[in-house]
Amino acid sequence: MSAVCSEVPFNVRKLLQVWTVLLTCSPVMAGYTWTNGVKSAPDHNAGSSPVFDDFTIRELEATEGQTLLLPCTVRYLGDKVVSWIRSRDLHILTSGAATFSSDSRFEAVPSPGGDFWGLRIRGVHLSDSGQYECQVNTDPKMSLAFNLSGARKLEASKWLGQALIKGPREVYVRDGSLVTFTCEISPLSTPQSGGFMSAKPKVRWLHDNKELLFEPFRSHISTKTFFEESSQKVIGILKISKASWRDSGQYTCLQMSVKSDSIKMFVVESEHSEAMQRDYPVQSCASKCLLHLGLVLLFTLFLWIGLVIGAFSVATYQALQAWNRYDTSPVVITIEKDFFNWETEFPAVFFCARAKLTTAYKFLKIFRNKYNISASVEQLEGYVDDLLFTTYENYSSLEKYANGSQDDFVPTDLYLELVNFTSFRIPKNSNKTKIKYSEWPKNVNGEYSFVLTEFGFCQCFHSKVAGFFNIDNFTIDGATNTTFLPITKKYKEPALTLSQSDFSQTNFLFVIGTNEIIDITSQYFVVTPQTLGDVFLDIVDIVGDEDIKMLSPKQRNCRYWNEADDLGHSRVYSYNLCRRECRIQLCLKFCYCTPYYYKRIDNEPICNMSGMFCLSKYPEILTLLDPKTGEDLCPCFQSCDFQRITAELTIKATWFFGSKVTVNLERFPRERELEKNPLHNFARPSINELTKPLKVASPEKIDQTVNKPK
After folding, report:
1. CA–CA distances in Å: residue 243 to residues 30, 240, 269
2. Same structural domain for residues 58 and 161?
3. Pfam families per the record (predicted)?
């Protein structure tokens, strides 16, 4: 067996061996193409009768617990079937690729599309000893018998012999070489060995712990066993002709009751002539060793350079990714639980009536005469119902105006006056208590603002933004001069309760945050004139820390209420107002007008009844979703300061002597979410953010209108 340059120092030789195997022992470099471990070969004898390949070993030995493969190769099988039979009880173990034994240790091992039909026995028992037949269902039947003998495992102290493979423990050969391994099995003690050696059993060889069974793709491997009378040794010869990369690995010589021996072989790419494996190493030229060593060292150098560059590139990429994540989303949300140190606001409450004033008939009579309306008062009442109580959800009911079956009596510039004087208002309580700062006595009736929303005319209590949409000053820059005084509650303070009684009409009840206004998708409770119930609130405050104000809205993923530079129809910002702006733009795009409850810019047309029916044809105006792709048409930021409110209405009874609804803030929130910038000392706004002019219109007017408490 040829070794690599014994004159080269030991450590260098080891390094060369490792790298030579890595560089040259690849199946691709060796130039072979394998399919399922077997070389494909054309069948030049199709149509011939089946015939056994009878060069396999038919006397097999196995140790108890070993996994064994019985080989059977049948050429020209055609449409015949190969079966395995256990002779002692004529039990059919397998037929074709199917296994018929209830013992899961037996398994058919066919080669797909090939000639090999093996029987695998896992965990051999002593009772498995006996004869097994490989049969083909020809007429007459063909059969090939195999004899299996088993033995118990022996402890190390019970070995009867010792196997020894001559030569070094690791050998290297060029591909295409003829390799011969010689294994000597010597008895360990004369009294025990006499009977053992007299049996003259065959030497078995393992390749990578799998027995060499000399299948078709191993036809270049042969073995021979003989007995030396003079030395009382059993000699086993393993011969490999034309060694290839596939023959690399560990070879083990063993026999029953004999301690085995192993040797490793590495097949490397050939350069010129064959090298024959003998029982001694053949010396090679030192210059070739040095050349191989130089190539290996050069490859190692380039490999390390590549690894360093690769590691640096990965680290740089990860650092840039981390910075990009921080730059695009530097805000983290922390949960605070020191509820003793903060206070929570009572939410805004909206009541939207679903019926006209009882005195509407009198007003409509005056209105008809004042503006020379051609319709009767009764017709005008139906018209007002359609104007007040239709929304995006039921604009399709206005088709009668679009097809001309009913006249559109009122000019659109009179809609606000018509709505203002016919909408239902909650009666004011003469005993109402004035609210001062954050002090709010229990069971106090509140003061309401009259606002226009996407539900039409509504009355609002304790809203920070309602003053900007008051019906009494409904222009783009209009806002009431009412000072907003927040009503707050601290832990262990008395519950805050808003009581409203004496409803004479059905109302929609909304409970939202003070920084928000309702839109068409807001959830509500239906309150009838006979309702006697309580609304209980659970509130989670989401608060933006001061250190995130220096970030852009895209970075913090939210906007403050005075950052309304992108909203043309509102001077303040909230999530719902942003979605409201999207609906306005879609209304103008599809129907060239907007409903009366939106403020308008540059004399934008107000939708008449036919125009509002036009809006019903486009569901994306309501949902703000693309009807084809489902994508959001309005990617709005949430407000930086808002309340996540869960409301529950409990109906106590049906009360025929008047209605009463109470909104209660009893349960104080035990935690809140704080949006923070953990690296705010390093974060700086970009040059574009510093130089970008703020487009919020009339900031002085906003500051005068809303008085923030310290």
Report:
1. 11, 6, 10
2. no
3. ASC, V-set
Residue finishing a domain among 153, 174, 195: 153
Which pLDDT does position 200 carry in this prediction?
61
Angle between helices 415-422 and 377-389 (to 10 degrees): 90
Which of 451, 637, 434 has the alpha carbon at shortest distance from 544? Answer: 637
Predicted pLDDT at 551: 87
Order of strands, edge to edge, in the sheet holding 348-353?
449-453, 456-461, 348-353, 507-512, 525-527
| 517 and 487 within one domain | yes
User: Alpha-carbon distance 354 to 660, whole Å?
Assistant: 17
CB contact set of 77 (below 8 Å; sequence gap of 6+): 50, 115, 136
Nearest to 585 by CA among 604, 603, 565: 604
Domain final position from 264, 284, 304: 284
Q: Which amino acid is at 381?
A: E
H or E segment and range at residue 621: helix 620-623
The whole model's pTM is what? 0.53
Which pLDDT value is given to residue 305? 94
How far apart CA 578 and CA 596 sit, in angstroms, is 18
Whether the Cβ atoms of residue 435 and residue 487 lie closer than 8 Å to each other: yes
- 552 & 690 share domain: yes
Task: Please identify every stretch of the chain with a pLDDT value under 70, giving residue numbers as ranges.
Answer: 1-47, 54-56, 113, 151-158, 189-200, 213-217, 270-289, 426-446, 478-483, 502, 655-658, 678-710
Q: Are residues 224 and 119 both part of a single domain?
A: no
